[in-house]
Amino acid sequence: MPISHHHDQAPENAILVFLAIVILAACSNEPQKTLSVPTFAHQPPIKLNVASIDVISTYTAPGKPPNVEHEFFTPPEETLKRWAGDRLRALGRTGNARYTVINAAVTEKSLPKTEGLAGVFKKEPSERYTATVEAQLEIFDNTGRRLQLASARATRSRSLQEGATQQERELMWSELIEALMEDFDKEMERAIRQYAGPWLL
User: Could you give the angle at the alpha carbon of 152 between the alpha carbons of 143 and 127, nearest 5°?
Assistant: First the structure.
């Protein structure tokens, strides 16, 4: 009577499950990029010969397409206000400065995709985001008369590849604003030194 041999698949299955767990664990241990909020606290303060500084905003986010800044973890408007808190200092005894956020918009534009068979196998940018920030600094005397004005504006754009995850989108937004605010920081400081030099300490 022939003897049949039965091979137990359990050990092999166990090994496959173990390998899957190891692979998942390795993926979860990969360093995750985090969303950064631009800060300029490390920069030397811009010392103004005024008794106080008011920080306000006249910008109103539309809250609908093509604008998307309201979807940001930290809207550019708040980042612009934070810049003033990080860099401007009131060290005088009289007068007043007013820092105003004028624009803090980010717009989204869908990009055309290559048609036909070529487009099927080609990964292309699907959206382009353009961010613009603008703010001004005014100096007033004790009577409320404006003595000086300095302003700065910066714009940057960046595209996102099709198929990007929401996390990748938010990371790109974060990097876009960080680069944009570096531009703004340089332009605003230059404008203040050029047009409001007499009120610097």
Answer: 140
- What tokens does 82 get? 């934070």
**Does residue 150 form part of some domain?**
yes
57 domain-assigned: yes
DSSP codes of every residue in 12-44: HHHHHHHHHHHHHHHHHTSPPP-------TTSP
Return the sign of the alpha-carbon dihedral for residues 95, 98, 99, 102: negative
Q: What's the start-to-end Cα distance of the chain, in Å? A: 105
CATH number at residue 50: 3.30.160
Q: Which two tokens stand for residue 26?
A: 């390795």
Over residues 145-169, the pLDDT tens digits come to 999 999 999 999 999 988 889 999 9
Count up the domains in the chain and report the number. Answer: 1
pTM of the model: 0.78
Q: What is the rounded distance in angstroms from the CA atom of residue 16 to the CA atom of residue 13?
A: 5
CB 139 within 8 A of CB 147: yes
- At 35-72, the pLDDT tens digits run 667 788 899 999 999 999 999 999 999 999 999 999 99
